[in-house]
Each structure stands twice: as C-alpha cells, then as structure tokens.
Design goal:
The chain is α/β, with parallel strands linked by helices. It is built from 5 helices and 8 strands. It has a single domain, classed as Glutaredoxin. Helices cover 29% and strands 24% of the residues. The longest helix is centred in the first third of the chain and has 17 residues. 27% of the residues are buried.
Amino acid sequence: MRRIFTAVLAAAGCLAYAGQEAVKEEKPVVDFTLPQLDGKPFVLGENLGKGYVVINFWARWCTSCEEEVPELAALKKLPGADKALFIGMNVGDSQAKAAKFAARFKYPYLVVLDKDKAVTKKYGVLGLPVTMIISRDRKVVYRGSRPPRTFDFTK
C-alpha cells in the first residue's frame, strides 16, 4: 500500500510540473503599488510599456522558490534581458524575513512585498513559485511555475 501511495504522489508531482509549461495568456496586466525592501513604493504602471517586465512570485518557505533562483539568473542573461525589468514579488512574508531570504539566495532583481497577498490574488496566483512575463503592450505573454528556459526579449 505504501508503494502505491508513493507512486501516486510521484506521478502527481510529475504531472503538476509537466502541466506548468509556458502558457501564453495575452491578458491585460493589473497595475499595483507595493513597497520595496527599502520601504520605497514601486508602481508597476510607471514601468510598463518600456520593455518586458518579469515578475516572479515567491515566499521564504517555498523550497521550489529556492531551487529556481539559478533558472531566474539564467533567464536574466538571455539576449535582450538586460533591457527587461525583473521583479521578485514576495508573497506574505515580513520585510525582515523577505530581505534575509533575498540576501541569502542573492536574488538578482528588485524585490517588492505583497504582505497581504492582495496583488498575488488579483493575478490569480494560487501556488508558488510562479513567473510571468509582461510584454511592451502590457499583456501577460508567459506564465509558468518555473521561468522559461528560453525567451526572446529582443522582440
């Protein structure tokens, strides 16, 4: 019985991961204002239309969030990504805990705090991690549980 249960869990995990490949949504973006780690406000709307925006939703308790840090770093090194804005949206943690986690894993981007999870809910994020890419025309063009391995930031 234990072997069957283990096999079912393993299969479910594989299916969950396999089902999270790139999803092209083309949905309008929800604007938000959230505090950065230093307390200064960040307004998404002031940064839209200039280039791609990558938003990664994460939390300190999320082991998959830890595992994806190298994937996010690799994404940031793709051609044209230097002109994209990368945002790490911490979901539900205090400023101190989010800052400690970001420093520990050397998050290579701006971190904002969604302490009450209101913005996360508006984006329909139910599980973590989630990475979204927003185009210049303010549409979500990628959404997945992992960052894409390839993406054309030069378009």
